[in-house]
């Protein structure tokens, strides 16, 4: 018999400005409520540091895909020109790597783009067609002029009240409880 899934609650707090959101992120980083996210209508310089986020590993995905594309393109050209269909053209050797550089570079660029795209989708857990925050009418303002913090936590009444008080002390207003 499978264990019932624990209910997750999101607390959504609105802030007046980007500066207020940045200050709230710094205080949340140092608090016990460390499972949170900041939402704003535009990127805020320094928010990653304020939230204490580590550098992304997306570059490793892109680098591995680039090496795969580079070696695959070079291997394909070597195989076709030396093994499968060897032709002597103007006295050049079968494996003339200088002639293979443009296709090798293009293969590396193509695979880097796909690696970065697929890596980004995987790291962001996308495609996710719905998130409980999308059910909030207030949260729709995040793409226009709203600055929000969402705190994810288990559905415990005492913890929710504690987090609510903490968000109010940070300057959060219109705090909404969203069941997920």
Q: What is the third-level CATH name, the topology of the largest domain?
A: Alpha-Beta Plaits
Shape annotation: elongated
Number of E-type strands: 4
N→C terminal distance:
23 Å
Helix content: 40-55%
Q: List SSEs in N-to-C order.
A: EHEHHHEHE
CATH class assignment of the largest domain: Alpha Beta
Written account of the structure:
The chain is an alpha+beta fold. The protein has 2 domains: 8-55 and 131-179, Alpha-Beta Plaits, CATH 3.30.70; 58-123, no CATH class. Helix content is 47%, strand content 15%. It has 5 helices and 4 strands; from the N terminus they run E-H-E-H-H-H-E-H-E. It has helices at residues 18-29, 47-51, 58-84, 97-123, 157-169; strands at 8-15, 36-39, 147-154, 173-179. It has a 4-stranded antiparallel beta sheet. It is elongated and about 80 Å long. The two termini are 23 Å apart. The relative contact order is 0.28.
